Amino acid sequence: MKLEDVQHLLPEMAQLIATLIGLPKAARLVEVWGGTTFPVSKNKRRDGQIRYEALAEVVGVDAADKLTAHFGGEVLAIPRCAVAMREVRDRLIRAEFDELTREHPAVHAVNQLARKYQMTERNVWMVLKKVDQISETPQGKLF
């Protein structure tokens, strides 16, 4: 299960960042700094160089260069992507449930998943009742 599978659930800013530096590096940025703001430097003064180096440490030099070129001098609000991350988690839970129930009863599988994902058994059951959120195609919106 990857973030690519739920890219349609990402906020606009996350999609823009992913377009600039690629989805894997954007996912790393969200993982490290999601829900915060980051002043993107122009990489000219010492303060800016320190921020640039911190950014490059997370996403790599090439991606940091692209983000600096696009957002330099701005404060970048890095989204948490909570909806997309929750969908990834829910899909993992459903897949693991299917795997576990091949050898164990459903109640045992739900108990294991609740402990693994630090949620109540009731919430695991609710996740199991949901279906994957898929992107709607223009034709799908007609029906």
UniProtKB/TrEMBL annotation:
It holds the Pfam family Mor. It comes from the Bacteria. InterPro entries: Homeodomain-like_sf, Mor_transcription_activator. Residues 37-133 form the Mor transcription activator domain. SUPFAM superfamilies: Homeodomain-like (SSF46689). Gene3D superfamilies: Homeodomain-like (1.10.10.60). This is Mor transcription activator family protein.
